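Follow-up to my earlier ticket, as requested here are the two runs.
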Amino acid sequence: MTKTSKKADEFKHGELREIVLATLGASVLIGGTLITPNFPIVLGSIIGMIKEFRKKDIPEKKIKRVLQNLEKKEILSLEMKGNDVYVHLKDWLQPTIVKYSLRQILELKRRERKWNGKWFMVMFDVPESQRNKRVYLRSFLKDIGFFQYQKSVYLFPYECEKEIALIKKIIESGKYMSYIIAEKIENEKKAKIYFHLETIPS
């Protein structure tokens, strides 16, 4: 099989697992809550959200296989109700799940929203004695799609206050973070290029 004929539903190792976990976590976040609910998510809803987020049709049997593997690892549990499969996330506030979910939600905002020229900034000052936590926080912000403006200043072009509140909740070093909305910043060209934004006439 050539590269050009590779099937659209083939994934790198662990990629489909990440997609499924991201979708499960995002389904909770989009519900507008920052508490720890344990409500079931119907398999059909998961498949629909994956299609919406990723623009891919993934065979149901592949998603079921991933869910069964996650159940064996005690990350979630599955429940049959009639002909439907319901999924329960045991700990959706697990940092890895939250990271996947936030990245997916922020990607969706970038696709669907028009930039209004404002910058949504995260600044932090983690003590030197907690350097490892500082490094982790920087990595986390980069992984979910923020642009590093300065060493401890990160940018996103769309409103993300709830997402930052969640990071503060699950990451210990998050307590050192501040959320700021800026009408204008200097030297924003690199950030615009990073986010593929059109230049606003001066």
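Run two:
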Amino acid sequence: MVKKFIPSRKSSSRKGDNGIVLVVGGSYVYHGAPILSSIAALRCGTDLVYTSVPKINVTPTRAISPNLIVIPLVDQKLTRGAVTKLLGALPHNLNSATIGMGLAIQDKNALIYFVKSLLDRDVRLSLDASALIPEVLPLLANKNVVVTPHAGEFKRLFGESPSNSKSERIKTVEKNAKTYGITVLLKGAMDVISNGTTTYLYEKKIPAMTVGGTGDVLSGLVAGILSKNRNALESAAAATFINGLAGKAVQKKLGLHMTSTDLLDEIPTAMKPFDKIV
């Protein structure tokens, strides 16, 4: 099934044909989150990744990898001025974006303006962490948007906590996905992915993946696959599955001692069975 969700690559394709992704995140404390997302997007076969982080994080982000195209946010937190400058610096052929990993937001209206501007450009979105606020929900209906909350973020976004009961948890995800016209990826021991009509479940059983940063890797995978597949539900389901395959491989190799950077190294191996060239 996942093979159907990951598009083929044309043998005649050129740079940019296989996805252009924007990652916006980071803060004084959480400098690593957008780096993990960005490298995950690259590892799953995206051609170009633009990583926008606060100016205080620019030097360490550039030092981590020469593969990232780093665009500084002019302020240390997300402000209207920072968003305006960033929108002017982005490529016009951007396919998808993931926003929120470790991101410090000074002005909620700046986030709302940013999300609306990207959707107006037909950019597919994956929203995580600090970008998961109820004020953005009215903008998202019937767009190509995935939200990736854990249980606490789910409550903040939708105003209700997901139940520990499997059946009730599924119903809650489906209800909110349908109400708001979005794809919801509720993270947990069992990931629940739904657009309100179709639902996929992924029971990971990978306790090593409780380490910090695995959700940031997942966000990068969602955006990376979403840059090539416009279907938000399929992209989220494929990303969850690939993230899990990589996690299982790392746990088998390292036991309960993995880091999220170990996860990044396993993504190409996890993706390889799904590679198709036409």
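The only thing I checked on run two: The first strand starts at residue 20 and ends at 24. Let me know what else you need.
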